[in-house]
Amino acid sequence: MGKFNGFNPGGAGNMQQLMRQAQKMQQDVARVQEEIGNTEFEASVGGGAVKVVVTGKKEFKSVTISPAAVDPDDVEMLQDLILSAINEAVRIADETMEKEMSKVTGGLGGLGLGF
Predict the structure, then answer these.
(1) CA angle at residue 66 from 41 to 86, to 5 degrees?
(2) Please, which pLDDT band fits residue 76 given cuts at 50, 70 and 90?
(3) Burial class of residue 48 in the structure, from the number of CB atoms within 10 Å of its CB (0-12 exposed, 13-18 middle, 19+ buried)
(4) How far apart are CA 31 and CA 91, in angstroms?
(5) Around 21, how many Cα atoms within 13 Å sit in the side-chain half-sphere?
(6) Quick one: which of 55, 60, 59, 64 has its CA closest to 93?
(7) Which of 2, 15, 31, 53 has a 20 to 30 A CA-CA distance from 86?
């Protein structure tokens, strides 16, 4: 009496196990998002002329500009350095988030689990 009208009752246990695994993965994803979101990432460009600190949530914490980088005759260079530092800090944060997420999800990606 393993089947009832083509339904295998043993499958329900497997589905419950799968749902528990999905729920745990979702909790792990939320934990990693919180941890990485609160982590600060720093990027420095131009030999330390410009330093940017950003969180994993992409909230900018600080921008430090060396006085030697401030040249009134070459404002464009300073602007480029600032943009480069910002882009690098965000890239590092994104890369770290992606790497940590893949540890949790095993490379499964979204799968409708809310991440």
Answers:
(1) 35
(2) very high
(3) exposed
(4) 21
(5) 10
(6) 55
(7) 31
Could you tell me the pTM of the whole model?
0.71
Give dist(CA 32, CA 41) in Å, integer.
15
Are 61 and 54 spatial neighbours (Cβ–Cβ below 8 Å)? yes
Structure tokens at 39: 């982590």
Mean pLDDT in residue range 86-99: 95
Angle between helices 10-38 and 75-105 (to 10 degrees): 160
